[in-house]
Amino acid sequence: MKNSDSNSNIVWHEGKITYEDRCKNLEQKGIVVWFTGLSGSGKSTIAVEVERELIKTGKAVYRLDGDNIRHGLNSDLGFSEEDRNENIRRIAEVAALMKDAGLITLASFISPFQEMRKFACKKAGEENFIEVYVKADVETCAQRDPKGLYDKAKQGEIDNFTGISSPYEEPKNPELVIDTTKLSIQESVQKVLAEINDLV
Fold first, then answer.
1. Domain spans of the chain, in order of start
2. Of 4, 6, 80, 111, which is the active-site residue?
3. Where is the APS kinase domain (predicted)?
4. In angstroms, rounded to a whole number, what is the distance separating the alpha carbons of residues 114 and 120?
5. DSSP state string for 50-62
6. How confident is the model at residue 146, as a pLDDT?
7. Residue 44 is assigned to a ligand binding site
8. Residue 4 counted as an annotated binding residue
9. Spatial distance between the Cα atoms of 34 and 110, rounded to a whole number of angstroms
10. Is 40 annotated as a binding residue?
């Protein structure tokens, strides 16, 4: 999160269209829905279904997924704590831009550290941000894991794996907690949609 000395020569160029203008044009409020939780907790699965349901109702929505983003925008980053923070910093900036465009932005990232989730909230604006903690214990996530990542992490083949060799800081006051050890995917989706509809 370092700033270059050359940033002092960069000036923000204001346009003539506001966030409110874009929201009015799309007939919705631009927001960021931030899904956080362990790998295998169900973040991406829920986000995919939420996106589909919102599109059905005519909403303008876009989904940002952790693995997908690492194929492009963040392909240069590893999994050290510094790189993980940079990963979330970039996504938070992108999500905030999409929010400003009036889109409902679904961001699905492990985002294990509280500090970076707070950063994402600040960039989008607290009034435009829904933190969804997709909760499941490590054992359950490992059982669901189709790639065998948890086994590899336990064997030392993957460094800095959240829940095994790297910590996950549980959200303290998320807007929504989805316990996927107790709720079905459809039940989880409905809870997220209700939270979104209350805001947009």
1. 21-198
2. 111
3. 29-179
4. 10
5. HHHHHHHTT--EE
6. 72
7. yes
8. no
9. 10
10. yes
Using one digit for the tens of pLDDT, what is the confidence trace for 139-170?
A: 999 999 877 899 899 888 998 899 998 999 99
Does the annotation list 38 as a binding residue? yes
Residue 166 appears among annotated catalytic residues: no
The band of 6, judged by pLDDT with boundaries at 50, 70 and 90, is low
Rounded to two decimals, the pTM is 0.90
CB 42 within 8 A of CB 188: yes
Exposure pattern of 46-71 as b/e (b: 16+ CB <10 Å)?
bbbbbbebbeeeebbbebbbbeebbe
Cα torsion angle, 176, 199, 187, 61, sign: negative
Sheet containing strand 61-65, strands side by side: 61-65, 104-108, 31-36, 129-135, 176-179
41 is in an annotated binding site: yes
pLDDT tens-place string over residues 91-121: 999 999 999 999 999 999 999 999 999 999 9
CATH architecture group of domain 21-198: 3-Layer(aba) Sandwich (3.40)
